[in-house]
Design goal:
alpha+beta, 3-stranded antiparallel beta sheet, 12 strands, 60s Ribosomal Protein L30, Chain: A, 7 helices, 5-stranded mixed beta sheet, about 25% strand, about 25% helix
Protein backbone atom coordinates (compact mmCIF):
# COMPACT_ATOMS: atom_id res chain seq x y z
CA UNK A 1 0.00 0.00 0.00
CA UNK A 2 1.33 3.44 -0.98
CA UNK A 3 1.69 5.77 1.97
CA UNK A 4 1.14 9.51 1.70
CA UNK A 5 3.52 11.71 3.63
CA UNK A 6 2.97 15.26 4.73
CA UNK A 7 4.70 17.58 2.29
CA UNK A 8 5.23 21.33 2.56
CA UNK A 9 6.18 23.13 -0.66
CA UNK A 10 7.50 26.73 -0.55
CA UNK A 11 6.33 29.11 -3.29
CA UNK A 12 8.27 32.33 -3.80
CA UNK A 13 6.71 35.57 -5.04
CA UNK A 14 7.84 39.16 -5.66
CA UNK A 15 8.44 41.45 -2.71
CA UNK A 16 5.62 43.98 -2.39
CA UNK A 17 5.45 47.36 -0.65
CA UNK A 18 2.00 48.67 -1.63
CA UNK A 19 -1.43 47.36 -2.64
CA UNK A 20 -1.39 44.70 -5.39
CA UNK A 21 -3.51 41.92 -6.90
CA UNK A 22 -3.00 39.00 -4.51
CA UNK A 23 -4.80 36.44 -6.67
CA UNK A 24 -2.93 37.26 -9.89
CA UNK A 25 0.31 37.20 -7.90
CA UNK A 26 -0.53 33.75 -6.51
CA UNK A 27 -1.31 32.42 -9.99
CA UNK A 28 1.96 33.78 -11.38
CA UNK A 29 3.96 32.48 -8.40
CA UNK A 30 2.57 28.97 -8.87
CA UNK A 31 3.25 29.06 -12.59
CA UNK A 32 6.81 30.35 -12.14
CA UNK A 33 7.57 27.72 -9.50
CA UNK A 34 6.17 24.88 -11.58
CA UNK A 35 3.72 24.00 -8.80
CA UNK A 36 -0.05 23.62 -8.79
CA UNK A 37 -2.74 23.38 -6.15
CA UNK A 38 -4.50 20.03 -5.79
CA UNK A 39 -7.87 19.30 -4.23
CA UNK A 40 -7.33 18.71 -0.52
CA UNK A 41 -4.23 20.89 -0.23
CA UNK A 42 -3.97 23.59 2.39
CA UNK A 43 -2.57 26.86 1.06
CA UNK A 44 -0.64 28.89 3.61
CA UNK A 45 -0.52 32.60 2.85
CA UNK A 46 1.51 35.16 4.78
CA UNK A 47 -0.97 37.38 6.59
CA UNK A 48 1.47 40.26 6.12
CA UNK A 49 1.56 39.68 2.35
CA UNK A 50 -2.24 39.60 2.29
CA UNK A 51 -2.38 42.78 4.38
CA UNK A 52 0.00 44.61 2.03
CA UNK A 53 -2.09 43.49 -0.96
CA UNK A 54 -5.10 45.23 0.64
CA UNK A 55 -3.16 48.42 1.33
CA UNK A 56 -2.83 47.89 5.08
CA UNK A 57 0.45 49.81 5.08
CA UNK A 58 0.66 53.05 7.05
CA UNK A 59 3.19 55.84 6.98
CA UNK A 60 4.33 56.60 10.51
CA UNK A 61 4.46 60.30 9.66
CA UNK A 62 0.66 60.23 9.33
CA UNK A 63 0.14 58.97 12.89
CA UNK A 64 -0.39 61.53 15.65
CA UNK A 65 -0.27 60.21 19.24
CA UNK A 66 -3.15 61.05 21.54
CA UNK A 67 -3.16 61.39 25.31
CA UNK A 68 -3.71 57.66 25.96
CA UNK A 69 -0.89 56.69 23.61
CA UNK A 70 1.46 59.20 25.20
CA UNK A 71 0.72 57.81 28.66
CA UNK A 72 1.27 54.22 27.52
CA UNK A 73 4.42 55.17 25.60
CA UNK A 74 5.91 56.66 28.74
CA UNK A 75 4.89 53.69 30.86
CA UNK A 76 6.40 51.12 28.49
CA UNK A 77 9.26 53.20 27.01
CA UNK A 78 7.77 52.98 23.53
CA UNK A 79 7.78 55.15 20.45
CA UNK A 80 4.58 57.21 20.93
CA UNK A 81 3.64 56.71 17.27
CA UNK A 82 3.71 52.92 17.65
CA UNK A 83 1.80 53.26 20.91
CA UNK A 84 -0.91 55.19 19.04
CA UNK A 85 -1.15 52.47 16.39
CA UNK A 86 -1.52 49.87 19.15
CA UNK A 87 -4.30 51.90 20.77
CA UNK A 88 -6.08 52.11 17.40
CA UNK A 89 -5.63 48.45 16.44
CA UNK A 90 -5.83 46.40 19.65
CA UNK A 91 -9.09 44.82 20.82
CA UNK A 92 -7.65 44.88 24.37
CA UNK A 93 -4.38 45.98 25.96
CA UNK A 94 -3.36 43.57 28.70
CA UNK A 95 -0.10 45.08 29.92
CA UNK A 96 3.43 45.35 28.65
CA UNK A 97 7.17 45.50 29.10
CA UNK A 98 9.79 47.94 27.88
CA UNK A 99 9.17 48.52 24.18
CA UNK A 100 6.06 46.37 23.83
CA UNK A 101 2.43 46.12 24.85
CA UNK A 102 0.70 42.76 25.20
CA UNK A 103 -2.56 42.87 23.29
CA UNK A 104 -5.55 40.81 22.23
CA UNK A 105 -6.28 41.24 18.52
CA UNK A 106 -8.48 39.12 16.22
CA UNK A 107 -8.46 36.22 18.67
CA UNK A 108 -4.69 36.17 19.15
CA UNK A 109 -2.64 37.44 22.07
CA UNK A 110 0.32 39.20 20.51
CA UNK A 111 2.78 42.05 21.05
CA UNK A 112 1.69 45.45 19.74
CA UNK A 113 -1.53 44.23 18.06
CA UNK A 114 0.47 42.48 15.33
CA UNK A 115 1.92 45.73 13.96
CA UNK A 116 4.96 44.82 11.88
CA UNK A 117 7.84 47.04 10.76
CA UNK A 118 10.04 44.32 9.25
CA UNK A 119 10.42 43.74 5.51
CA UNK A 120 8.80 47.08 4.72
CA UNK A 121 10.58 50.39 3.95
CA UNK A 122 11.76 52.44 6.91
CA UNK A 123 9.08 54.79 8.19
CA UNK A 124 6.18 52.44 7.42
CA UNK A 125 4.32 49.69 9.27
CA UNK A 126 2.02 46.86 8.22
CA UNK A 127 -1.19 46.19 10.13
CA UNK A 128 -3.15 42.95 10.43
CA UNK A 129 -5.57 42.37 7.53
CA UNK A 130 -9.05 43.72 8.06
CA UNK A 131 -11.50 40.85 8.72
CA UNK A 132 -8.86 38.10 8.35
CA UNK A 133 -11.40 35.24 8.20
CA UNK A 134 -13.15 36.93 5.27
CA UNK A 135 -9.76 37.37 3.59
CA UNK A 136 -8.98 33.65 4.01
CA UNK A 137 -12.42 32.72 2.62
CA UNK A 138 -11.87 35.01 -0.38
CA UNK A 139 -8.51 33.37 -1.14
CA UNK A 140 -10.14 29.93 -0.94
CA UNK A 141 -12.90 31.08 -3.31
CA UNK A 142 -10.35 32.50 -5.75
CA UNK A 143 -8.34 29.25 -5.69
CA UNK A 144 -11.47 27.31 -6.59
CA UNK A 145 -12.71 29.69 -9.29
CA UNK A 146 -9.40 30.70 -10.87
CA UNK A 147 -7.23 27.63 -10.28
CA UNK A 148 -9.86 24.88 -10.11
CA UNK A 149 -8.69 23.52 -6.76
CA UNK A 150 -10.78 22.91 -3.64
CA UNK A 151 -8.31 23.79 -0.90
CA UNK A 152 -8.11 24.97 2.67
CA UNK A 153 -6.44 28.28 3.45
CA UNK A 154 -4.43 29.52 6.41
CA UNK A 155 -3.34 33.11 6.94
CA UNK A 156 -0.02 32.65 8.71
CA UNK A 157 1.57 34.79 11.34
CA UNK A 158 4.21 34.22 14.01
CA UNK A 159 4.01 34.69 17.75
CA UNK A 160 6.02 34.29 20.90
CA UNK A 161 5.30 31.27 23.09
CA UNK A 162 4.94 32.21 26.78
CA UNK A 163 8.19 31.51 28.60
CA UNK A 164 10.04 30.43 25.44
CA UNK A 165 12.63 32.04 23.18
CA UNK A 166 11.82 32.23 19.49
CA UNK A 167 8.72 32.62 17.37
CA UNK A 168 6.52 29.91 15.94
CA UNK A 169 3.63 29.84 13.50
CA UNK A 170 0.09 30.77 14.45
CA UNK A 171 -2.95 30.81 12.17
CA UNK A 172 -4.46 34.28 12.09
CA UNK A 173 -7.40 32.90 10.11
CA UNK A 174 -8.56 29.68 8.47
CA UNK A 175 -10.95 28.74 5.68
CA UNK A 176 -12.15 25.43 4.28
CA UNK A 177 -11.42 23.09 7.20
CA UNK A 178 -12.00 22.87 10.93
CA UNK A 179 -9.07 24.52 12.73
CA UNK A 180 -9.63 22.58 15.97
CA UNK A 181 -9.84 18.81 16.43
CA UNK A 182 -11.74 18.02 19.62
CA UNK A 183 -10.33 14.95 21.38
CA UNK A 184 -12.45 15.26 24.52
CA UNK A 185 -14.27 12.07 25.41
CA UNK A 186 -12.07 9.94 23.16
CA UNK A 187 -9.96 7.14 24.61
CA UNK A 188 -6.19 7.34 25.08
CA UNK A 189 -3.64 4.50 24.86
CA UNK A 190 -4.65 3.14 28.26
CA UNK A 191 -8.39 3.41 27.87
CA UNK A 192 -8.74 6.68 29.75
CA UNK A 193 -11.17 9.27 28.35
CA UNK A 194 -9.51 12.50 27.25
CA UNK A 195 -10.64 15.39 29.43
CA UNK A 196 -9.45 18.69 27.95
CA UNK A 197 -7.38 18.12 24.79
CA UNK A 198 -8.38 20.03 21.68
CA UNK A 199 -5.73 19.91 18.96
CA UNK A 200 -4.89 23.15 17.17
CA UNK A 201 -4.72 21.73 13.65
CA UNK A 202 -4.54 25.11 11.89
CA UNK A 203 -1.79 26.37 14.19
CA UNK A 204 0.18 23.13 13.82
CA UNK A 205 -0.01 23.30 10.02
CA UNK A 206 0.93 26.96 10.20
CA UNK A 207 4.09 26.06 12.12
CA UNK A 208 4.95 23.54 9.38
CA UNK A 209 4.49 26.21 6.71
CA UNK A 210 6.56 28.77 8.60
CA UNK A 211 9.55 26.41 8.45
CA UNK A 212 9.78 26.87 4.68
CA UNK A 213 8.30 30.36 4.37
CA UNK A 214 10.77 32.00 6.75
CA UNK A 215 10.50 35.47 8.28
CA UNK A 216 13.48 37.44 6.92
CA UNK A 217 14.52 37.74 3.26
CA UNK A 218 13.20 34.44 1.90
CA UNK A 219 10.46 36.14 -0.21
CA UNK A 220 8.25 33.08 0.24
CA UNK A 221 4.74 34.30 1.11
CA UNK A 222 3.02 31.07 0.05
CA UNK A 223 3.36 27.40 0.93
CA UNK A 224 1.39 24.36 -0.19
CA UNK A 225 0.70 21.82 2.55
CA UNK A 226 -0.14 18.45 1.01
CA UNK A 227 -1.43 15.23 2.60
CA UNK A 228 -2.27 16.95 5.88
CA UNK A 229 -5.29 14.71 6.39
CA UNK A 230 -7.69 17.60 7.00
CA UNK A 231 -11.17 17.36 5.55
CA UNK A 232 -11.92 20.19 3.14
CA UNK A 233 -15.44 21.52 3.57
CA UNK A 234 -17.49 24.67 3.19
CA UNK A 235 -17.62 26.35 6.60
CA UNK A 236 -18.35 29.76 8.06
CA UNK A 237 -15.44 30.33 10.45
CA UNK A 238 -14.43 33.15 12.75
CA UNK A 239 -12.03 33.82 15.60
CA UNK A 240 -14.69 32.39 17.93
CA UNK A 241 -13.91 28.93 16.50
CA UNK A 242 -10.36 28.96 17.86
CA UNK A 243 -10.06 31.62 20.54
CA UNK A 244 -11.06 31.48 24.16
CA UNK A 245 -11.96 34.60 26.08
CA UNK A 246 -8.58 35.93 27.22
CA UNK A 247 -10.04 36.21 30.71
CA UNK A 248 -10.10 32.39 30.73
CA UNK A 249 -6.57 32.05 29.35
CA UNK A 250 -4.32 30.41 31.93
CA UNK A 251 -1.36 32.57 30.91
CA UNK A 252 -3.12 35.92 30.91
CA UNK A 253 -5.45 35.34 33.83
CA UNK A 254 -2.77 33.82 36.04
CA UNK A 255 -0.42 36.76 35.55
CA UNK A 256 -3.00 39.54 35.74
CA UNK A 257 -6.09 38.87 37.83
CA UNK A 258 -4.85 35.53 39.19
CA UNK A 259 -2.83 35.36 42.38
CA UNK A 260 0.89 35.13 41.68
CA UNK A 261 2.54 32.91 44.27
CA UNK A 262 6.34 32.79 44.41
CA UNK A 263 7.60 29.31 45.18
CA UNK A 264 11.21 28.83 46.22
CA UNK A 265 12.51 25.31 45.80
CA UNK A 266 15.70 23.97 47.36
CA UNK A 267 18.64 23.74 44.98
Amino acid sequence: MTRSYLTVIPVQAPVQQAAFDLYATLEAALRDSGEALHDGDVLAVSSKYAAISAGRVVSLTDIHPGAEALTLAERYAMNPIIAQLVVQEADAILGGIQGFMLTHKDGIISPNAGIDRSNIPNGYAVLFPLKPYAVAADIRRAARERLGADVGVILTDSWLMPGRLGTTGVALATAGFRPIQDERGKIDLFGNPMQVTQRGIADTLCACAQLVMGERDEATPFAIIRNSGVRIEELMLSAADVAIDWRNCIYVESLTEGRLIAVTRPV
